[in-house]
Structures are given as C-alpha cells and as structure tokens.
C-alpha cells in the first residue's frame, strides 16, 4: 500500500478522552492537498483511509475506532470518534461532533455546533448545522 500521510510523533495533542493524537502530514499530493501539507490529528492509521481523497485538517480530531474514508473531509475543530464513520463526499466541520455509531455519508454536511450520535445516519444531500442534535435511540 502506498501511504498518503504519516503520523508525526513529535506533534501531538490529547483528546477529550485522554488519548494521544498525532498530527498528520501528506506524503503525496492528491485532490487539493499538497505533499508536505500538515493535516489534523488522528490516533492511528485506522482512522483515516490511505485510499481516496479523504483528509482531516486544521484542528480536527479523529480517534477511537472512528473512520474517515472515500473523499470525505473533516476540518476546522470537528471531532469524529467512538465507532462513527464519515465517508463518500461528506464533510464535517466547524465545531461539529460525530460519535457513537453514527454515519455521515454521500454529500451530507454536518457543521456549526451540531452533534450526530448514537446510530443516527446523515446522508444524501442532508445538512445538519447550528446547534442541532441528531440521534437514534
């Protein structure tokens, strides 16, 4: 597998749950990411797929068993954690949080101070924003 990013062992933050997260750096150019660009923070390779154009940037954080894949983007101060998945061309940004077993996919957008959690699914062209809370259960 040809890796698209590396974890920077000397650039870390601690997640809200006390886990060490590592800043990522692009090892190759793809989509609008240039080789050498710094990204956001992830806990391990499992969190961000090396295939596709998915990227975590700014101060965004992805950890636990959460995954970002496809062409999805997580940026600004967003958080994706627990067993949540963000994929397709979805975007999570602002101060939004996606967690639990939530899924955000297709062309969906979650932003502002919105939270998507439990077993909720946000998909197609849905937009969840402001102080919205979307959950199942």
Describe the structure.
The chain contains no helices and 17 strands. A hairpin with a 5-residue loop joins strand 1 (5-14) and strand 2. The chain is an all-beta fold. Helix content is 0%, strand content 39%. The protein is globular and about 40 Å long. The strands form 3 sheets. It has an 8-stranded mixed sheet, with no helix packed on it.
Number of helices: 0
The overall average pLDDT, rounded, is: 97
β-strand amount:
35-45%
- Biggest sheet strand line-up: 1-2-3-5-8-11-14-17
Summarize the helix and strand pattern as letters: EEEEEEEEEEEEEEEEE
Which terms summarize this structure?
mainly beta, 137 residues, 17 strands, 5-stranded parallel beta sheet, 0% helix, globular, 8-stranded mixed beta sheet
